[in-house]
Amino acid sequence: MNEKIKDVLDRLSKSRFRSGFHLKDKDVLYIKDKGIDKILKKVGEECTELVIAAKNPDPEEIKYEMSDFLYHAMVLMVERGVTWEDITEELANR
């Protein structure tokens, strides 16, 4: 697994238990503490923003929105106990 992805997943899974965290970690704590409905709402919002960005010709906008979508999808993964290895295994089986 890419080390950067592993670092993000590790940070997300541990963020609830850290006392000194960054702004993004506070956002994740807020989303995770609000429960699955809030997480799903964020994933849906980011997915919609990605679709809109993909209709525009600017690859930077797509990169930005794809990153937001993947970040919140990873919050969902951590919340539901899905690992990146689970995802890559599933992709390999397709």
Largest sheet: none
Structural class: mainly alpha
Poorly predicted spans: 16-23
Percent of residues in helices: over 70%
Question: Which sequence of SSEs, written as H and E, runs from N to C?
Answer: HHHHH
Give the rounded overall mean pLDDT: 80
N-C termini distance? 19 Å
Principal-axis shape equals globular
Number of strands: 0
Number of helices: 5
Strand content: under 5%
Give the C-alpha Rg. 14 Å
What features would you describe in this structure?
With 94 residues, this protein is mainly α.
Question: Could you write a compact summary of the structure shown?
Answer:
The chain is mainly α. It contains 5 helices and no strands.
Give descriptors for this structure.
94 residues, mainly alpha, 5 helices, 0% strand, globular
Lay out the secondary structure.
Layout: H1 3-14, H2 23-34, H3 36-54, H4 59-80, H5 84-92
